[in-house]
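QA checklist item 7 of 12: single-chain prediction sanity check.
[x] sequence parsed
[x] length recorded as 76
[x] structure emitted
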Amino acid sequence: MLGLVYALKSGIGLGALPTAIADDQQDLVRVLGPIPELARSWRVLTTADLRNTPRISAFFDFVAAERDALRTILTG
């Protein structure tokens, strides 16, 4: 992904980047909207033995509470 970012910054042309990466690049300009064929579902997983630990529970609680705000970051 980093190679594609540098190639696009050098002026190679158009390229598809995840919005979470591309939106952080101030010298790149979004020229196309989301590409449905590149869309995917996001899953956040943990192992059964970690799922009830406080830090993992806190993380999942945060993601559940903030999912609408996080959706725009992850999907553009």
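[x] summary fact logged: The longest helix spans residues 54-65.
[ ] second reviewer sign-off
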